[in-house]
Write a structure and sequence with these properties.
- This protein has 363 residues and is an alpha+beta fold.
- Helix content is 28%, strand content 22%.
- Strands 5-6-14-10-7-9-8 form a 7-stranded mixed sheet.
């Protein structure tokens, strides 16, 4: 059995290896391909020295002279029309620990102890990313969050449903405010009616219903100015349509049946269906029965990831501390990982929320 000093050294040694891949999102995305946070949000990580992030929203302006709307390219003359709001960062802390006399370590060789700690650190890393993944489909209780609340997730805080959505309807600016005071930063639809997202309701997966509403959204969005954001993994689409299992399978069946060469195309459409280069992705966090944040009703989210920003404070950029002495646990040592971060969205109007009441499309 190692001494306490040796045990401390074992942990410190393995933490050194663990820290090397903290934000290696390309490697992590290959290791955990089911986590969209690694494929889309983390590559867009930006450092923010203040505890508050800034939303920059361009209101309607006539400066461009062609039916200006939110999203028109910003001209110097229209800088006065920009709205800036602050959004508070929040922290996420996770920890893992060991004791000398726990069953898995008691009487074991040094080699066994090192391997055991290495395996635990891999689990610890996965737990970290899974928690961050679930935060993307969640929001704090309050519009000004407490320090230890979740981030403002892309869904539920920035891209929202419309309570008054009519059957088979489409609203270009329909998403309800997620809080009484509006969206994070206090931007409400009462004051800024176009600082929201399109919403739609569909009954069937057909050309004149489901796909027609996506087409309408994409055509309207083409009239808006581009939102450049180069932080992206190679061969990864900016636009992704996230669905639950019943919708993905219905889309696959429809595309396969609508194609002449079923023998050739069955595998293609059953594997990775897409529409106008927008892939339909079965998102584990959105649709799996074991996901703690999965909606209970049909939910389809078409995100333009370039409209989102992920800010991290450089002094707490997955800051790892330890091994420390575990309080009230003799012979115990633990490590702690902490990040201060937040998600903002300058352009909720570039993201679509869809739902359906059809029984065969419910999760």
């Amino acid at each position: 059995m190692p001494s306490l000093a040796e045990f401390q050294d074992f942990i410190a040694l393995n933490i050194g290896e663990f820290k090397k891949g903290v934000w290696d999102y390309i490697g992590l995305a290959q290791l955990y391909p089911q986590l969209e946070v690694l494929g889309q949000l983390v590559p867009r990580k930006e450092t923010q020295d203040n505890i508050e992030c800034t939303i920059v929203y361009q209101t309607e302006t006539a400066s461009t002279g062609h039916g200006a709307k939110p999203g028109d390219p910003i001209q110097p003359i229209s800088q006065k029309d920009m709205v800036r709001r602050k959004v508070k960062m929040v922290k996420y802390v996770d920890s893992i620990g060991w004791v000398l006399d726990q069953d898995e370590l008691l009487g074991k060789s040094d080699e066994h102890i090192i391997k055991f700690i290495q395996k635990d650190l891999v689990k610890f890393d996965l737990h970290w990313w899974q928690d961050l993944e679930h935060m993307m489909l969640n929001k704090p209780v309050n519009i000004i969050p407490a320090d230890d609340e979740t981030i403002f997730g892309p869904f539920d805080a920035w891209v929202t449903a419309e309570a008054a959505q009519t059957s088979n309807g489409y609203s270009q600016y329909g998403g309800d405010d997620p809080y009484g005071g509006g969206r994070p930063g206090g931007l409400s639809t009462a004051t800024y009616p176009k600082y929201t997202n399109p919403t739609a309701y569909f009954d069937t997966i057909t050309d004149d219903d489901f796909f027609d509403k996506i087409e309408r959204f994409l055509l309207n969005r083409k009239l808006m100015g581009a939102v450049p954001n180069p932080r992206l993994l190679p061969d990864t689409s900016n636009d992704v349509c996230y669905c639950q299992d019943p919708v993905v399978r219905a889309v696959q069946r429809y595309m396969q049946a609508s194609n002449e060469n079923i023998g050739t195309d069955a595998g293609r459409y059953r594997g990775a269906p897409s529409y106008k280069n927008v892939p339909f992705v079965l998102w584990h966090a959105l649709g799996h029965v074991d996901s703690p944040v999965a909606p209970s009703t049909c939910t389809v989210l078409l995100f333009d990831w370039n409209s989102f920003h992920y800010y991290v404070h450089p002094s707490y950029d997955r800051k790892i501390e330890g091994p420390k002495e575990a309080p009230y646990v003799p012979g115990g040592r633990y490590i702690q990982s902490e990040v201060w971060h937040q998600v903002t969205c300058d352009r909720p109007d570039r993201n679509l929320y869809m739902t359906s009441g059809a029984s065969n499309l419910q999760p």
